[in-house]
Amino acid sequence: MNPLTERFNKQVDQIAVSLIRQFDERVSGIEGILKLTLGEPDFNTPEHIKDAGKQAINDNFSHYSGMAGLPDVREAAAYFVKEKYGLTYDAQKEILVTVGVTEAISASLLAILEAGDKVLLPAPIYPGYEPVITLAGAQAVYMDTSDNGFVLSPEMLRETLVKEGPAVKAVILNYPSNPTGVTYSREEVQALAEVLKEYPVFVISDEVYSELSYDQEHVSLAEYLPDQTILLNGLSKSHAMTGWRIGFIFAPQDLTAEIIKVHQYLVTAATTISQKAAVEALVQGIEDGAKMGEEYRVRRDFVYEKLKQFGFEVAKPSGAFYLFGKIPAGQIQDSMAFCVDLAEKNQLAVIPGIAFGKAGEGYIRISYAASREALAEAMKRLENYLQKQPNQ
């Protein structure tokens, strides 16, 4: 072993590649595998957005933008959240363009956290937050929502804030949720905001799936808690632009001025060509996500009904493109062992619930960002597996 490995930041020893990616790589080599694993839209980026990217190349937008991003993309982002969610942000002082929401998470958390701080997260939750919290020397504190339909209640939030005390520096919310697809109503958002405004904490609201909300209009926490909220969003899910790597941070001017320092040293600035494509997505493509959402809704309903028929307990998701089902009695209850066995015996890959924390154990996450034909075949394979039959 290289002796220099002993000189790494010791916090790196406390993190690992996410179980989502580990599992996906583990099963990818299985012949005939059908994967419903990663959170990747199966749609292509709309043609008009691709054309804007091509035009940007032809127009030689191949140089650095300013750290915060091009002025026109920040204006477009301000327009988008105003039109969609009634939010008002100063485009030049309160919006940062990031390299996807992943970088937005890192820049925000590294800007606010110090050693010894605590961060509250409802669980189960996307596993991309805790490693950054750990790298900052802070501690993640989970609030298990599995007995509450995967919805964080104001009572649960207040109880945890009181219990953990002044060490709590931030609360992270992610809705519509990865992995459950559950989201919050206007009344639920308002109730959480009423609790949070009583405490001097940052609230990082990751709303990247906001455009994929099927049964009700998405309500941003920033509407009710603008002074404390660091709002994260992006184009990966809404516009099928995962590879373009465009995210956004929306926050009050004094918070943005601090976060941009970290953002600069992480990435300098987002890709200029992608930013020009983002302008097209946010303005001319403002309804692109809704069009994709119509198809996702059909897929959700199909997979949801099948899982119920198969004996899974599953909260019907109102957004994103995931279903989170409790493994039926009589089957392997260890979620990792269940998913490995399913992949090896019936060539179907879904993500084990343990990837989303201890509160996810005993569950599986299915991504329905796949064609109807693929989903029909997947449900056939899942049913055969549950009945101890090979693929037919």
From TrEMBL:
PANTHER family referenced in this protein's UniProt entry, alphabetically: AMINOTRANSFERASE (PTHR46383:SF4), ASPARTATE AMINOTRANSFERASE (PTHR46383)
Species lineage: Bacteria, Bacillati, Bacillota, Bacilli, Lactobacillales
Matching CDD domains: AAT_like
Record-level GO BP terms: amino acid metabolic process
Needed cofactors: pyridoxal 5'-phosphate
Domain of life: Bacteria
Key words, A-Z: Aminotransferase, Pyridoxal phosphate, Transferase
InterPro entries, A to Z: Aminotransferase_I/II_large (IPR004839), AspAT/PAT-like (IPR050596), NHTrfase_class1_PyrdxlP-BS (IPR004838), PyrdxlP-dep_Trfase (IPR015424), PyrdxlP-dep_Trfase_major (IPR015421), PyrdxlP-dep_Trfase_small (IPR015422)
Residues covered by the Aminotransferase class I/classII large domain: 33-382
Coiled-coil segments on the chain, per record: none
One example GO MF annotation: pyridoxal phosphate binding
EC annotation from Swiss-Prot or TrEMBL: 2.6.1.-
Protein name as annotated: Aminotransferase
Homology family: Belongs to the class-I pyridoxal-phosphate-dependent aminotransferase family.
